[in-house]
Amino acid sequence: MSERTTAQGSRVSPADALAQSWRTIRGHRMRSLLLILGVSIGVTTLLAIYTIVTGLSGRIRDDVVSANQPYIYISRDSGIGGGDPAELRRRRQLLPDLIGPVRATEGVDQVDYQVSNGSGSVLKYGKDKTNFVQMFGSSEVFPFMFSIKVAEGRFFTAGDVTASNRVAVLGYGPRKDLFPQIDPIGKTLRIFGKPYRIVGTMAERKHIIGSMGDNFVCLPWTTFEKDGLRGGFEDRNIALSVLAGYESEEVMSNLTGTLRRERRLRPGQANDFDIVNSETYGELIDKVTGGIALVLVVLSSIGLLVGGIGVMNIMLISVAERTREIGVRMAVGARRQDVLLQVLIEAGILTGIGGVLGIGLGYLASWGMTHVLRFPFVISPAVTIGAALFSVSIGLFFGLYPANKAARLDPIVALGRE
Predict the structure, then answer these.
(1) Of 219, 241, 272, which marks where a domain is finished?
(2) For residues 173 and 160, what is the distance between their CA atoms, to the nearest angstrom?
(3) What predicted TM-score, i.e. pTM, was given to this entire model?
(4) Among 171, 203, 207, which Cα is nearest to 59's?
(5) How many CA atoms lie within 13 A of 405 on its CB side?
(6) Last residue of a domain, one of 272, 303, 333
(7) Same-domain status, 167 and 128
(8) Is 91 exposed, middle or buried (0-12, 13-18, 19+ CB in 10 A)?
(9) How does pLDDT run across 26-44, given as a tens digit for each residue?
(10) Is 282 a residue whose pLDDT tops 70?
(11) Residue 332 belongs to what domain range?
(12) pLDDT at 47 over 90
């Protein structure tokens, strides 16, 4: 004869305990519903925060890295290596004579030379004017290097760079501000007090920092050097893409050798330049947003702990209401582990249902928020399973005390309860 039908009659299998727990839950629908709702709200909040912060990290990474292929950035100061600011300012500029050696370095594909003066301006055309825009000089490969599309006209050519032609390509911001109703191609703007012919405009980047990411004007670096660097602040950098078949770290090592040789640095002498790859910026972003996500997840977990306390409270009430029933069952042969199992299963079912409901609501809320904010939306199987297991474990943990209390009831005392 199976355990389910033993002579004692009240010893139950896990399946029996599950069925009995479900009957109890259905018999107290409102109480059970409120507990499920509390747990589901906690799981929804936890999952939504994690998913949205993960999407934010992905969006910032995409916007900062801003390229379809890995690139390497050479500068006097990358801004992420620390060091003495005064010493960094004394470093030599990366002058144009480095372009050739860098381009000839093994593993290097395209090279973009960039010049800026650290300031911006407000441009005017007729009665219209822009917001504050950043102006900089670059090579003809700039849009291809950083995967920014040309919307109208063209980008300037290698010939424009060589001849120092006064041509300009507008970002989406100044194009919208100055030419909302007319075609800007061929129009002339005064930049640095000189006439510049507009040859193209860039597509909207939809950057996370909003319109600021589109408020720029790009000029040939040779022209910018001629008109925009008149004894003031200057910043010169070199960006380059990695040739297919090469690893970024390998190319960075090759570039270090090239630059040290070109700048005649002695063995043991420190580099007077910084080299970083695009993945370094991505890792920095992940580190920052990962810390934020951890804090927010810990804070949102408090909601689940509150739900767990509610589980304990409701299960204590449930045990108190069924004291006589438990006494009868124990008097006719039910074991303590049978009573313990039933109460724990009941708590686990309630929080498990709340967890599943919370997962659905959490991803629905995350999808809506990431759609509005234009963040990537990603469903993580590991996080989904973790949220479900966590919700069930909350029920089991906080249901352990009521379950143990029920299992330790004296059958004689329990039978005397009304």
Answers:
(1) 272
(2) 23
(3) 0.64
(4) 207
(5) 15
(6) 272
(7) yes
(8) middle
(9) 777 787 787 788 788 888 8
(10) no
(11) 3-62+284-415
(12) no
